[in-house]
Design a protein that fits this description.
By secondary structure, the chain is α+β, with helices and mostly antiparallel strands. The protein is about 25% helix and about 20% strand. It is built from 19 helices and 25 strands.
């Protein structure tokens, strides 16, 4: 079922994607997984079934490292912690395999042209309120998201359905691209054929019966979302203590079969207490900060599951301005590609990853994690950004950045003072400032005077979106989804193209990779274009890719049946605990 990744994927169209970059803990677990293996068993699961099979009953405890916002409906939520809660009680219509390719789940689909789709639902799937799931619940979700009073972040996943905008603007009473054939069959028509229409479509129903009589403007604050949420997933919510815990019981009518566990308790546990909770066997499952990896890995009663990640970190350069619609490369300070490349060679990325990600991070040379199916091979990339301070100095000299007044710092080619202004987000995690200072030291070691500014994480990305003049060189991170389309992050006029890099070839390659006339349904052709796109970014260096992380999750040895791969963890209905 791979629900963990599904929640991450839909974040691609909301600012909560920033959580991959600026959470307090930089956790490396909970949203995705892979095949690298655990600490003791050498695999990506925490034990198989015993000879007699899984044992029934028991309750597991799962740790949340921050308080949820309490928006417990997948159509409205906006934080990763709320998503962790929703994972246990709701299911989507489709899922993803360990290569991030969409697979049937509650629904199957057919299409001949990537514009007209027919979806067929499984019959007999029940909501926790006893109602049967039908296509009308999906229509209800799509119309809710398209309503002008909707206050959630999912409109981008619905707006390409034919007629959705007219419905949103009050010009139509229904969405013309939605045709209900029966309770279990529905036709969806998009405004045009696209390679990734399916991957970008919102595929999470919403119980029409549960929200009967609730105005759209009131839904996100309603008891149906905040106090008594229902889903179609393996566990039912039984009790919510705001800011502290969420309790679940097994849903006996779950469409994939009754869970092995009787219940689940999600508790907010301060990350500093997690190791003790694991050691004392008061906790069964948690993500954790890389700095705790060695200590957790050494616990005899704990398994550490590992998997390739789908996130990357980078250092961006401000190259231009942005008026909300169009980027213009009019900021001259970092326009010199040789300067940017030299700054990359000045950083010992391997040592930096080892020091701050404790063996779970590794350097990367492109804005795509290595485990993703479109990732370019390093042999196809011009720049590998090897640590070479002498080469960095030589490149700076050749580019005209030399010390003209013998003060020990390089001036710009015009002989003016040159100071690298580097920004990093600030939270209550003390390692963030330390790792930022480490980067500034690398640059100062090659003669580039550097000023560090730690900016509150609550303001950090607002300033980047606004192309604030004070954000010149900055640390950032993104998580990638099942669909590899990077348009929202790297198209010249994209809001989240924070460097404000404008490059015609960059834009054309991304557009061609989505154009049915260019690639059709040929995934190999699409990958070729994305490899060329990565080569273009690698050549021009609008950013320095600095790190990708393995995902890790700690589980108690009594908890069995948990598996991780690139797409995330398996469904919690398959988990079980050893009985005393």
């Amino acid at each position: 079922m791979k629900k963990k990744l599904l929640v991450l994927l839909v974040l691609m169209f909301s600012l909560t994607l920033m959580l991959a970059a600026c959470s307090d803990s930089d956790d490396t677990g909970g949203n995705s997984g892979g095949n690298d293996g655990g600490s003791d068993n050498g695999g990506n699961d925490n034990g198989g079934e015993e000879a007699s099979g899984p044992q029934e009953g028991g309750t597991m405890v799962y740790a949340l490292d921050t308080e949820p916002d309490g928006i417990y409906n997948i159509n409205f939520y906006g934080t990763a912690t709320d998503a962790e809660v929703i994972d246990f009680f709701d299911d989507g219509l489709i899922t993803y395999d360990d290569e991030l390719k969409p697979q049937p789940h509650i629904a199957d689909w057919e299409t001949d042209d990537n514009q007209h789709y027919t979806f067929t639902f499984q019959e007999g799937v029940k909501w926790h309120n006893g109602e049967e799931l039908t296509v009308n619940d999906w229509v209800f979700a799509l119309e809710t998201i398209s309503h002008p009073d909707y206050d959630g972040p999912r409109w981008a996943n619905v707006q390409t359905i034919e007629g959705a905008k007219a419905f949103r603007d009050g010009e139509a009473d229904s969405i013309s691209g939605i045709n209900v054939v029966s309770d279990y069959e529905i036709e969806i028509t998009f405004d045009q054929p696209r390679v990734n229409n399916l991957e970008n479509l919102w595929t999470y129903p919403m119980s029409e019966k549960e929200f009967e009589g609730v105005e759209v403007a009131d839904m996100s604050s309603s008891p149906q979302v905040r106090e008594n949420p229902v889903g179609t997933g393996p566990f039912k919510v039984t009790k919510i203590v705001p800011g502290e815990s969420v309790q679940f019981e097994a849903f006996e009518d779950y469409w994939q079969g009754k869970p092995h566990l009787d219940g689940v308790v999600l508790k907010v546990i301060d990350p500093s207490l997690v190791i003790g909770e694991l050691k004392n066997e008061d906790l069964d499952m948690t993500s954790f900060h890389p700095s705790n990896y060695e200590e957790i890995d050494a616990l005899d009663n704990v398994e550490v599951l590992k998997a390739p990640g789908v996130s990357y970190y980078y250092i961006g350069f401000r190259l231009g301005s942005y008026d909300g619609e169009t980027a213009t490369m009019d900021f001259e300070k970092y326009q010199n590609e040789e300067l940017r490349t030299a700054m990359a060679h000045a950083i010992d990325r391997q040592a930096w990853n080892d020091e701050f990600f404790f063996g779970l991070g590794s350097p990367i040379n492109r804005p795509v994690p290595s485990a993703h199916w479109i990732a370019a091979d390093d042999s196809d990339l011009e720049n590998h950004f090897e640590y070479d301070p002498e080469l960095a100095k030589e490149m700076l000299d050749d580019a005209g950045y030399v010390d003209t007044n013998d003060d020990g710092w390089r001036e710009d080619p015009d002989g003016e003072e040159f100071v690298v202004k580097f920004s990093h987000y600030a939270t209550n995690n003390p390692t963030f400032e330390t790792r930022a200072k480490s980067i500034t030291q690398f640059w100062e070691d090659v003669g580039l005077k550097t000023k560090l500014e730690m900016t509150d994480s609550g303001l950090y990305y607002d300033l980047l979106e606004e192309a604030d003049e004070g954000m010149e060189v900055f640390f950032g991170g993104w998580s990638t989804g099942a669909d590899p389309d990077p348009t929202a992050l790297w198209h010249s006029d994209a809001l989240w193209n924070f460097p404000r890099w404008v490059n015609e070839k960059n834009d054309q390659l991304m557009e061609d990779a989505l154009d049915m006339d260019v690639v059709g349904t040929d995934q190999d052709k699409r990958k070729e274009l994305y490899v060329e796109w990565q080569q273009n970014i690698n050549e021009h260096v609008p950013m320095i890719p600095i790190s990708e992380l393995e995902e890790v999750m700690a589980t108690s040895k009594r908890l069995q049946g948990v598996e991780m791969d690139l797409s995330g963890t398996n469904s919690p209905h398959e988990w079980w605990v050893k009985q005393d």
